[in-house]
Amino acid sequence: MSTVWTEWGALTRFLESARVAFARERNLWHSLELADPQIVQITTTTGVRRYQVALASHLAAVDDEVTLYASVLIHTYALTEAAATSKLGIDSRAAGGIETWGKLLLDANGRDWTGVFEGEGGAVEVAVVRNAFAHGTRVIDSAAEARLVAAGASPRTAGDAVSLTYEELRVYRDRLRSLLRTGGVDLTAATT
User: Fold this and answer.
1) What integer pLDDT is reported at residue 23 of this predicted model?
2) Which of 39, 65, 121, 170 has the smallest CB count inside 10 Å?
3) What is this structure's pTM?
């Protein structure tokens, strides 16, 4: 059985290795001197499926780091929620938002949001950004705006586009890690 921190480390290695692989792929294709790059198609065979894509579309895919970062954020959030609700012995599907299960976790360890990196507002911002990607909207809706205001987070307005940089991802993951550690999820806490 792996711990939350084993999984966390594996996810971090995936992120950093994928960034290297994407950069190498971009550099490779941009360094080639192609007679007509408009008609180059990349074809691969994996098992029974064949994938064919125009070079421009392939480069657009490997340039799209936001999707990589969002995937890592979604997975990190799920890992955090699973570890917290497992420690609390509650069903994650009925645990409410991070402001609810996060407070329960902190209370169970005799702590509060002041001990968490960027506090409740920071944690709620992570949840709101994660939701914008997980639900495919990539915008702040009115419920998310109200949720941010209630938690004292940095204001965002309904309709604002949501993006994600590498530095923002690092901060969001730091907030989640801080919540787990402040909540008493230690190196031996198992995820389920």
Assistant:
1) 93
2) 39
3) 0.87
